Amino acid sequence: MTRFNFLLWLSHYHYDSAICYYLMMQRHSFSEMNCPIALSAEEIVDGWTIFILREAVKGALTFNTLIEKLPIAPTTLTRRLKSLVDKGFFVKTQYQANPVRHHYELTDKSRDLLPILIALGEWGHR
């Protein structure tokens, strides 16, 4: 029995179905797939990353500006920004000491996504 089938069975007979549904829908890593699309998705498809990059390309390069532009929880934005810095999409620079504030600068890696973001936006308007 696969993990999915087991959790499906469990949801029908034993536990709250919402918990089992959550377990079934957990995101899996694409990093082991031998596919350039899967590897790209591993980098930028997680629910918010692509929208953070979109806003950054449009000029929103501070935490506060991104919070104003996106309906995202501050803790989620903090985690996503850290991930984007770790993956090389942004360079984080402190611009204020008290309170500590940072500016996020686009890297060549994030700028390389601009044509893809534009194409995705044009496709979405069809």
Outline the structure in words.
The protein is mainly alpha-helical. It has two domains: 1-30, no CATH class; 33-124, Arc Repressor Mutant, subunit A. 57% of the residues lie in helices and 10% in strands. The protein has helices at 3-13, 17-24, 36-44, 49-57, 63-69, 74-86, 108-111, 114-124; strands at residues 90-96, 101-106. Strands 1-2 form a two-stranded antiparallel ribbon. Strand 1 (90-96) and strand 2 form a beta hairpin. Helix 1 (3-13) packs antiparallel against helix 2. The longest helix has 13 residues, at 74-86. The radius of gyration is 18 Å and the shape is globular. The N and C termini lie far apart (42 Å).
Number of strands: 2
How many domains, as an integer?
Answer: 2
Structural class: mainly alpha
Number of helices: 8
| Topology as a string of helices (H) and strands (E) | HHHHHHEEHH
CA distance, first residue to last residue: 42 Å
Secondary structure layout plus pairing:
Layout: H1 3-13, H2 17-24, H3 36-44, H4 49-57, H5 63-69, H6 74-86, E1 90-96, E2 101-106, H7 108-111, H8 114-124
Antiparallel strand pairs: 1-2
Helix pairs in contact: 1-2
